[in-house]
Write a structure and sequence with these properties.
With 253 residues, the chain is α+β, with helices and mostly antiparallel strands. It has eight helices and ten strands. Helix content is 38%, strand content 20%. A six-stranded antiparallel β-sheet has the order 7-6-5-10-9-8, sandwiched between helices. The protein has a two-stranded antiparallel sheet with strand order 1-2. The protein has a two-stranded antiparallel sheet with strand order 3-4. Strand 8 and strand 9 form a beta hairpin. The protein is elongated, with a radius of gyration of 22 Å.
């Protein structure tokens, strides 16, 4: 039986999200699943589309959307639903592991100074490749790489991180299975180094390598991006050196 939390409920208001079930899952789990589906719809989505993509009955989807709208997590414009401002604000408050951020700051800065490249550290947040530390490179031919921004899966940094997923053999978004298998083969032959030879942006090359904790677990990727027709000589070794320095710094925290 559903247990309703009437705290804050009143005339004209939806009750708070309940702890019962929504199509076999807890209501909170169902609400977050629905928000994940909605977040993937860049142009919003209608009720029928959301119910289908979330695998929920339309009545359940509608009830959850109303409750989420009352909380500011969802907004409705016409017949389409969008992620609400309140949820977007909370999402923008995401913070990486402060120890990793501190351990990487100086090695990333030094790598940029030695190579005159844009350098940055990325982590995998679910399936999102998120920048947590970056230099302010003045390379005008590429979009700015800023802390908090997301990178495409096909970038060198994205490939390094996506290789570490538990289901690493399955092709991630942005790759066909054949493309992903080729990327895996190249990654293994290179000794866990991913290089972008102008595949993402013409005239831009990038090298990315994993960053490990002292216990060996891969927690991030460090990258160097250069506007060159080919990866500069010696760049890969300098990126590897920066990765090792970050690992040493993590061991000191």
């Amino acid at each position: 039986m559903d247990v309703r939390d009437h705290a804050g409920a009143g005339p004209g208001r939806e009750p708070a999200l309940r702890t019962g079930t929504a199509n076999g899952r807890g209501v909170l789990e169902g609400a977050f699943h629905l928000l994940d589906v909605l977040a993937a719809a860049e142009d919003g989505a209608g009720l029928s589309e959301l119910a289908r993509d979330a695998g929920m009955p339309k009545a359940t989807t509608y009830r959850l959307l109303r409750q989420l709208a009352n909380l500011g997590a969802v907004e409705r414009h016409g017949q389409r639903y969008f992620v609400g401002r309140r949820l977007a604000r909370l999402g923008g408050a995401w913070q990486p592991d402060p120890r990793l951020q501190a351990a990487a700051r100086e090695p990333v800065r030094l790598l940029s100074a030695l190579t005159t490249t844009v350098t940055f550290l990325t982590v995998l947040e679910e399936d999102r490749v998120r920048v947590i530390t970056a230099t302010r490179g003045e390379i005008r031919k590429v979009p700015p790489v800023l802390p908090g921004s997301e990178l495409a899966e096909a970038t060198a940094a994205g490939r390094v991180l996506l290789m570490q997923r538990p289901d690493g053999d399955a092709a991630p978004p942005g790759f066909t299975l054949a493309e992903w298998r080729r990327a895996q083969a190249v990654f293994r032959r290179s000794g866990s180094v991913a290089a972008d030879h102008q595949e993402v942006l013409p005239g831009v090359c990038c090298v990315a390598v994993p960053v490990r904790r002292p216990d060996g677990e891969i927690v991030a990727s460090v990258s160097a991006l250069a506007v060159r027709p080919a990866v500069p000589a010696g760049l890969t070794e300098l990126v590897l050196r920066a990765s090792r320095e970050i690992t040493r710094n993590l061991g000191r925290t």
